[in-house]
Design a protein that fits this description.
- In chain A, 86% of the residues lie in helices and 0% in strands.
- By secondary structure, chain A is mostly helical.
- Chain A has a single domain, classed as MetI-like fold, CATH 1.10.3720.
- Chain A is globular and about 65 Å long.
- Chain A starts with 5 loop residues before the first helix and ends with a helix.
- By secondary structure, chain B is of the alpha/beta class.
- Chain B folds into 2 domains: 51-270, 3-Layer(aba) Sandwich (Rossmann fold), CATH 3.40.50; 277-391, CBS-domain.
- Chain B contains 18 helices and 16 strands.
- Chain B has helices at 19-26, 31-38, 67-74, 97-106, 123-127, 129-134, 138-151, 167-180, 197-214, 225-231, 249-254, 259-266, 276-279, 293-303, 323-331, 358-363, 383-391, 397-403, and strands spanning 3-13, 42-52, 56-60, 82-87, 90-91, 108-111, 185-189, 217-222, 234-239, 242-247, 286-288, 307-311, 317-322, 347-349, 368-371, 377-381.
- Chain B is elongated and about 90 Å long.
- The chains are: A mainly alpha, B alpha/beta.
- The interface between A and B is medium-sized, with 22 and 28 residues.
Chain lengths: 279, 408
């Protein structure tokens, strides 16, 4: 039986990309690394308690004093376990990856909502991105951008972008027809329609997408320790290598705390935006 | 009064490729035959009509008859498959997107059945929407919007959000939003159908009130004939996407074009369309001012009545004289009725709706006087003749009594 050399083709494709665009990938790598380092240094200047304070204020604004208290305690625990630097590294990676996902994903979602054909082409692509085992992205990321931060961001963006695209698309499509008709009947241009009617009404759904994207980013950032990303994931990986259950638990707990804080914070923003809309 | 909107041979077929069905339609096939052959539904079938400036033109039909589609073809929220829509001499169907937006911003505004207020905006922010889209400065548009909100009776609500308002108030906002643009044309899509009956009547009155001040050209969609009769200067009946009849409320009720219209007309409360002119009797007998009390008494005796209207030579009503008054005058030796102090009677214009003075008619002991524009006495109203006119509906009088319930 003839075996389709699918894997071979993919290898060839990646090699071709590297041969022809290698320098472009390199300079891209340098730029992103530079941004990440700058960010890390900037945050690194802040003492730990200031960062906890900032999170507490955000939590208080988003949901109230209970979340603020929980957030402070959780972060203090991470500091106490001497995981502060890996925690910051992971946080920075998540923020960069989420930001990139949103910058690319929201416009894609908007285009998908407005152009049926694009929507139909994009959908299977998104299915692919979401169901392909996340480890697989690590290989091309590694080849394009070598070990380190940029590979991690690349793999994470690919893995975490689908929800925000899908939910932006869905949110805009769910805007009631008569409200779209209002926009048209009063002579809105396409961009006025987008910014005055579609996006404001889709906002709660888009925020839910942002929340999911952040959660997926976090999980992928941890996994991307396998290709040299610093942070909590690296600690987990080391614990596995050393069969050190205690260490693994501490690092794992820190990941859980970070996940809960990010989730509650962004959910708080979702329900706030929903409340504004309902009002 | 010129023609404001002219719709010619409007066809809407719900399909991206309507050519085949259009072709069959040209060949004279019916809607059902085309559905059978092509599977395409004809929403609007070769409809033509003209709306005059300053007119309230009601498009009336059951749900699914295509009336909302016709309305949306006027501002091209739905693209007509063929035919033309000419507004102020410009063929709307040929406009490029940018020109079309201009027309939508300047010429016409729409009021929606489910109000369609933007939930994330306050009443004021909703009301300014049209001007905001048009690029009017914030101060100017808010000034204008506040004016309009006050016109529809929503002073003080400008910072509320839509879900804090009742249905009637929401539609007032919808109306204010449409009026803020100062459009020539208002497109109203079942604007009051979602409101409960009392509020609906209130809004209809409000609209008529506003219309008196603003004199817009209004195209109003409804499935309620009573509403159509109340609001419409003319009514167009739509059935299955085709125009069945266009006419004034009178014409529709008097000569329904077919059974479809007649069936509607039978369900109508006639007191809402009958004017005094329709139910009055010829003013006979009457006496002249120059006549004396003898004549007056004689006339009353001849007709077996106890009072009679007195007019001058130009037929202007002077008052009422009763038998008692005439007897007194005869005793006093009065020469002509000029010297008698006649009883003043209230007069009513011939154009007044019967329903509006129903209670007056019912309670008045004397006949009512009806006058024309030149104040001449042209008719009298006796209770019996009103009841006869109302009963002459072909429908049962039960309808009348239930729908005029509040009037007693």
């Amino acid at each position: 039986m003839y075996r389709l050399p699918l894997g071979h083709w993919v290898n060839n494709g990646v090699e071709w990309l590297l041969d022809n665009f290698g320098s472009a990938f390199d300079s891209f790598t340098e730029t992103v690394t530079g941004v990440a380092d700058t960010l890390r240094n900037a945050i690194g200047v802040l003492p730990w308690f200031v960062i906890i304070l900032i999170f507490a204020i955000l939590a208080w604004r988003a949901k109230g004093w209970r979340l603020a208290l929980g957030t402070s305690l959780g972060l203090y625990l991470i500091y106490n376990l001497e995981l502060w630097q890996p925690f910051l590294d992971t946080l920075i990676l998540v923020l960069i990856a989420s930001l990139v996902s949103l910058i690319i994903g929201i416009p894609l979602g908007i285009i998908a909502a407005r152009h049926e054909r694009f929507h139909r082409i994009l959908s299977p692509g998104l299915d692919f991105m979401q169901t392909m085992p996340s480890f697989v992205y690590l290989i091309p990321a590694l080849m394009f951008f070598s070990l380190g931060t940029v590979s991690a961001v690349f793999a994470t963006v690919i893995f975490s972008m689908p929800p925000v695209i899908r939910l932006t698309d869905l949110g805009i499509r769910q805007v009631p027809t008569d409200l779209i008709e209002v926009g048209e009947a009063f002579g809105s241009s396409p961009s006025q329609m987008l910014f005055k009617i579609q996006l404001p009404l889709a906002l709660p759904t888009i925020m839910a997408g942002i929340n999911q994207t952040m959660m997926l980013s976090l999980s992928m950032v941890v996994i991307s320790a396998m290709i040299g990303a610093q942070g909590l994931g690296a600690g987990v990986l080391a614990a596995i290598a050393q069969m050190d259950i205690g260490k693994g638990f501490e690092y794992g707990l820190a990941v859980v705390i970070l996940a809960m804080i990010l989730d509650r914070l962004s959910q708080g923003v979702v329900s706030n935006s929903r409340a504004t809309l309902k009002k | 009064m010129g023609v404001k909107i002219e719709v010619k041979n409007l066809v809407k077929i719900f399909s991206p490729q309507p050519q085949k069905a259009l072709h069959l339609l040209d060949q004279g096939l019916s809607k059902d035959q085309i559905l059978e052959k092509t599977g395409l539904t004809i929403g609007v079938n070769n409809v033509s009509f003209a709306v005059n400036e300053g007119e309230v033109f009601v498009v009336m039909g059951l749900s699914g008859s295509g009336k909302s589609t016709i309305l949306r073809c006027l501002n091209r929220l739905i693209e007509p498959s063929s035919g033309t829509v000419i507004i102020d001499g410009v063929d709307i169907t040929n406009l490029k997107p940018k020109e079309l937006r201009q027309v939508r911003q300047m010429k016409m505004a729409m009021v929606f059945q489910q109000f369609a207020l933007l939930p994330h905006r306050t009443v004021l922010q909703n009301t300014v929407f049209g001007l905001e889209v048009h690029g009017v400065s914030k101060a100017d548009r808010e000034k204008k919007a506040l004016e309009r909100l006050s016109m529809v009776g929503l002073d003080g609500y400008e910072n509320s959000y839509p879900d804090e308002l009742s249905g009637g108030m929401k539609q007032r906002v919808g109306l204010a939003r449409a009026l803020t643009n100062d459009p020539d044309i208002l497109l109203m899509d079942e604007a009051f159908s979602a409101l409960d009956p009392l509020i609906r009547e209130e809004m209809q009155d409000e609209l008529l009130n506003l219309q008196q001040k603003m004199n817009k050209t209004i195209v109003f969609i409804t499935h309620d004939l009573n509403e159509a009769l109340k609001l419409g200067d003319r009514i167009a009946f739509i059935r299955d996407g085709s125009l069945v009849q266009v006419g004034t409320p009178e014409e529709i009720i008097r000569d329904p074009a077919d059974d479809y219209v007649a069936k509607f007309a039978r369900g109508v409360d006639r007191s809402k369309i009958l004017t005094l002119k329709d139910v009055m009797k010829r003013p006979h007998p009457i006496v002249q001012l120059r006549d004396g009390p003898h004549v007056a008494l004689q006339v009353m005796m001849d007709h077996g009545i106890s009072s009679v209207f007195v007019v001058d030579r130009a037929k202007h009503l002077q008052g009422l004289i009763t038998a008692d008054l005439a007897l007194e005058a005869r005793k006093a030796g009065v020469e002509s009725l000029r010297e008698v102090k006649l009883i003043e009677v209230p007069v009513h214009q011939e154009t007044v709706l019967v329903q509006d003075i129903f209670t007056i008619i019912a309670e008045s002991k004397t006949p009512l006087a009806v006058i024309d524009e030149e104040q001449r006495l042209i008719g009298i109203i006796i209770r019996g003749s009103v009841l006869a006119a109302l009963a002459n509906t072909g429908g049962d009088p039960k309808d009348v009594s239930t729908t005029t319930g509040p009037l007693g």
